[in-house]
Amino acid sequence: MKKIVISFLSLGMMLNVAAQDMDNLVENPSFEQTEGRIKRGGAITVAVGWMSPTKASADMFSVKVKEGYGTPNNNLGIEEPQDGSNYVGIRAFSYNDKEARNYVSSKLKMTMKKDQKYCVKFYVNLAEASKYASNNIGINFSKKQYNISEAKSIMTSTSVMHKDNPVFNGQFGWDEVCGVYKAAGGEKFLTIGNFSSNGSTENQRLKKSKSFSGSAVVSAYYFIDNVSVVAIDDETMCECEADARQPETKFIYEVAPMSSIEGMDPAVVAKNTSIYFAYGSSEISENSQKHLDVMLKMWLENRGSKIMITSHTDENEHEDPALAALGEERVEAVKLFFMENGINYTKVLTENAKNTRKADASGTDLAKAKNRRVTFQLIQ
User: Fold this and answer.
1) Which domains, from first to last, does the chain contain?
2) DSSP secondary-structure letter at 53?
3) Helix axis angle, 326-340 relative to 286-300, nearest 10°?
4) How far apart are CA 63 and CA 11, in angstroms?
5) Which residues have a Cβ under 8 Å from the Cβ of 259 and sit 6 or more positions away?
6) 331 near 351, Cβ under 8 Å?
């Protein structure tokens, strides 16, 4: 009976997702449908239904690519897709226009109706390679497709942008751009990018991320994912994260796993390994799994040792009564992984440090993400 109930629930979820996809006027909204191979930058047309409206083609990133333009690891940084397995990348700002901007564009499934309201959403993440961050990232709806034979910026109106139009400087996790658009009627195309001049664009120069070892780019380069345009009857039907004002941060802080541990002191490997979690979650991300694989390899070569697994929460998690067991859930998830892969349970020690040993005490969203973690200590 339990299996039947679960099956019905699963079917219901699938039907709900299918219904949402049908309502969305954007074809291939998360860039999952692809045709062809990604061999270099500027491969946006590999994503079915998408193109770049200028000569400066946008980049495509896919889980199918192992190096350069893969997900979550690529030449520009490390980021799990917001939805599915793929995303695209655009340059929204470059100081003194040293590098041309990119845009991504698609034809809507249906022409927009005059005075119809639409809930518009997409997600952005600043790549770690970026030397700059900027605002003015939005979406433009048009009756005709932009088709510019030069690598130049598109100067036009922005149909929807974040209500606060902030400088998007978050390099870990995704920021939602969301708003309501009232159609003039006849719009058939959408384009995502920065449609304002450099003089009208606020920017920040950033320090290089310590977790990123690749080459920096002299621009504000953003990953884009999960684009949706849905007709609504009332503006209250468009729920935007910016309106929710939730105090907790939900993104996952990520660093690249060690590429090689040959010749390294096992205790140093353990000490320099941490895995991070989303707010209120004990789910192990794909990036964290790679860190655990490194730890497992080291441990299997040092079976005589024990390891202390310590969980840590951020201050919001610590103060939430509903998450009282979260620390134990995180260490148990990690412990289970090791036990399922040949480590005797007597070798696995666990500890819940709660919010007593902060990795970063500054109180920012990034600091909180750094504090939601599990750390390791080798005991020989």
Assistant:
1) 8-238 (2.60.120.260), 266-379 (3.30.1330.60)
2) S
3) 50
4) 26
5) none
6) yes
Strands (E) in the chain, as ranges, are 50-51, 59-61, 73-74, 77-78, 87-94, 104-107, 117-126, 132-134, 137-142, 160-161, 175-182, 189-194, 203-205, 219-232, 274-276, 306-312, 348-352, 373-379
Work out whether strand 348-352 and strand 306-312 pair parallel, antiparallel, or are unpaired. Answer: parallel
CA–CA gap between residue 374 and residue 104 (Å, rounded): 38
Residue 178 pairs in a beta bridge with 121
- Measured CA to CA, the distance from residue 99 to residue 245 in angstroms comes to 35
Whole-angstrom distance, CA of residue 339 vs CA of residue 344: 6
Distance CA 57, CA 217 (A): 16
Tokens of 266: 């096992």
Q: Which residue has the higher pLDDT, 62 or 209?
A: 62
Phi-psi region of 173 (alpha: psi -120 to 50; beta: other; left: phi over 0): left
Model confidence over 44-58: pLDDT tens digits? 999 999 999 999 999
- Rounded Cα distance, 102 and 80, in Å: 21
Token pair in block for residue 49: 């239904």
Statement: the pTM of the whole predicted model exceeds 0.85: no
